Amino acid sequence: MKQELQPYIRKAHYYETDRMRVIHHSNYIRWFEEARVDYLDKIGLPYAKLEETGILIPVLAVNCEYLSPVIFDEQVLVTVKMTNFTGVKMTIDYEIKGASSGILKVRGQSRHCFADASLKPIRLKRDFPDIYSGFERFLEV
Amino acid sequence: MKQELQPYIRKAHYYETDRMRVIHHSNYIRWFEEARVDYLDKIGLPYAKLEETGILIPVLAVNCEYLSPVIFDEQVLVTVKMTNFTGVKMTIDYEIKGASSGILKVRGQSRHCFADASLKPIRLKRDFPDIYSGFERFLEV
Amino acid sequence: MKQELQPYIRKAHYYETDRMRVIHHSNYIRWFEEARVDYLDKIGLPYAKLEETGILIPVLAVNCEYLSPVIFDEQVLVTVKMTNFTGVKMTIDYEIKGASSGILKVRGQSRHCFADASLKPIRLKRDFPDIYSGFERFLEV
Amino acid sequence: MKQELQPYIRKAHYYETDRMRVIHHSNYIRWFEEARVDYLDKIGLPYAKLEETGILIPVLAVNCEYLSPVIFDEQVLVTVKMTNFTGVKMTIDYEIKGASSGILKVRGQSRHCFADASLKPIRLKRDFPDIYSGFERFLEV
């Protein structure tokens, strides 16, 4: 049975704003990464540990829709869902909402593969079966 | 007849690398922006001037595919194409290639609307017909 | 009597690392800013509120000494001290320590003035006496 | 006799601005790095090559004074001077000026050591005498 994971909580920093007086759109891609790292912690597969084990998770693609601006010092909640996982590739979906307003600000997705230190693809099911299972139980479809 | 515009030339900076020893994926979104600003210069509609006129071009969505890593100090060429333009919305396509290798590194797209200083949508055809024409002649379909 | 304020807690993000596999030195300047904003919250003078009141706090100078590298996912504590305050200018000192190791990683300082929305200097004692007092009681000398 | 090196030319990017509508102060530290890398190219010691040879140049300290803001799309010239060099340590001075206005915007300095891949200090004079000489002839005192 899937556990309900808490969203990642984040405050928008001053240096992330731009002269439109809102958070620059490139930063949400970074917030996705922060939330993804936090998610891996929460499912018991901390990214720093995975890297030590020789597993990198490069990004193959991202997309991001900007629905409503986030402003300086605003607190947001980032919800993370693994919506595809094969042990060779993985897809993560993100939603960023205003913590107090509940307004949906940003929606996006990142696609990944699993790779070794030289960025060669690896197959978790064959090479790291325990880690494969660790991921698989959190797949939401 | 459409003029052939030169691609935007860029070197990868040290602070843009990450511990995978390649350019962090979030930075390409920023290179798209640099290339877009350069493109607007080249088509005679510099963004700083547009903002003075009261025209902002917020980003509605981006997507980005990472095909091959860019490393520190590597020179890349960013090709920019306006593939949709209605005066209300605009779509820009990007390709980042290694300057010496010719290898396709990154491919992406950004979608925009036109807005006034308070981020309210505007219609270029009605409100700024000259600027509308300035854009339209560079539309590539 | 001065209250002991809690340090600002922060985890190092993946996108903040560089190809030396440690946090890029420019990011600590940003962590100083985050810690400064957090400090202003803690002393009851949130920066977003100050800006609404018409008070900006631009940076006049920073310096930063790098003693020991911070790595990805490491947790750090940033201690903030206001070591000079005249109502016209302000100096803030920072120390970044490893949260578990206690090792001093980075030491620095930022100097500021107070300015209005057009970046003209202002004098807090004359123009905003309550805010002047709010700052002054946290001066540590 | 010392050759006069050309300054590094740079345009301020949109994503480098903040909600004060000027370039965020942390970015000048990054421009210093860009200018330093460009300088090393110009004196015939490209940083990527140095790293391949096993020589890293970590930053020990930076300081930066903000005299006048740089705005979006403004072109600046960064002048770089090596003001101290012992083969163990090095100091670089920077000045950022508006390209058309000539106004001094930012002044700063970075201090460095030379290190191997594991960040252990090295002595260029003993370990890399040719590279030592390559640096030394550009020392300006």
What does this protein structure show overall?
The structure is a homotetramer of 141-residue chains. Chain A has 141 residues and is an alpha+beta fold. The first copy, chain A, is built from 4 helices and 5 strands. Chain A has helices at 26-42, 47-53, 124-127, 129-136; strands at residues 8-11, 59-66, 75-85, 89-98, 104-113. The two termini of chain A are 13 Å apart. The interface between C and D is medium-sized, with 20 and 20 residues. Strand 2 (59-66) of chain C pairs antiparallel with strand 2 (59-66) of chain D.
Chart the SSEs and their pairings.
4 copies of one chain form a homotetramer.
Chain A: E1 8-11, H1 26-42, H2 47-53, E2 59-66, E3 75-85, E4 89-98, E5 104-113, H3 124-127, H4 129-136
Antiparallel strand pairs in A: 1-3, 2-5, 3-4, 4-5
Short précis:
Four copies of one chain form a homotetramer. By secondary structure, chain A is of the alpha+beta class.
Low-confidence stretches of chain A: none
Strand content of chain A: 25-35%
CATH topology of chain A: Thiol Ester Dehydrase, Chain A
- Quaternary organisation of the protein chains: homotetramer
**How much is the average pLDDT of chain A?**
96
Record the strand order, biggest sheet of chain A.
Answer: 1-3-4-5-2
Q: How would you sum up the global shape of chain A?
A: elongated
Q: What is the radius of gyration of chain A computed over CA atoms, rounded to a whole number of angstroms? A: 16 Å
Number of helices of chain A: 4
Report the sheet with the most strands of chain A, covering strand number, pairing sense and barrel closure. Answer: 5 strands, antiparallel
